[in-house]
TrEMBL record:
Organism of origin: Novosphingobium album
SUPFAM superfamilies, per database record: Nucleic acid-binding proteins (SSF50249)
The protein's name in its UniProt record: Zinc ribbon domain-containing protein
Domain ChsH2 C-terminal OB-fold: 67-132
Source superkingdom: Bacteria
Record-annotated ChsH2 rubredoxin-like zinc ribbon domain positions: 33-64
Length: 148
């Protein structure tokens, strides 16, 4: 795969104009634009930190680094959104929003969408894997049923 040059800060803001991007999460979005899901990882105690924080909640270390996660997890919780928010949006409803528990640590739950799956087939604890969707010019992580 051809490596993508890292976007500068202005390009990240341009790619995600409706997101609240700040010092603590901009590298998350920068990677997302390259279809890489990164989460802060404490270099002192090994704790994976999400939601984004500048300090490890386990050991108070500031020695954190964004690292790519495996993209494997299970559905911890999900909800279905049927309300049409924007009639001009390219989103096909209903949307399945889920807290996916990533395999990197128990309780590390990433909020995302479930795609490529019939709604009636979605069950809690279902194994899922990372995929990417593009909506209105923005690239977003999503999860689909794991192969096998
Ligand atoms: Zn730590």
């Amino acid at each position: 795969m051809r490596p993508v040059a890292a976007l500068n800060d202005h390009e990240v803001f341009d790619r995600y104009p409706d997101e609240l991007i700040d010092h603590d999460n901009i590298d998350h979005y920068r990677a997302m634009a390259e279809r890489r899901l990164v989460i802060r990882h404490c270099q002192d105690c090994g704790y994976w930190i999400y939601p984004h924080r500048p300090i490890c909640p386990e050991c108070l270390s500031e020695n954190l680094r964004f690292e790519e996660v495996s993209g494997r997890g299970t559905i911890f919780m999900e909800t279905r959104l049927h309300q049409l928010r924007d009639p001009d949006a390219s989103i096909v409803e209903p949307i399945v929003a889920a807290a996916v528990e990533l395999e990197e640590r128990t309780g590390l739950r990433y909020l995302s969408r479930i795609v490529n799956c019939r709604i009636e087939d979605i069950v809690l604890d279902m194994p899922v894997s990372l995929t990417w969707i593009e909506e209105d010019g923005c690239i977003w992580p999503a999860f689909e049923p794991a192969a096998g």
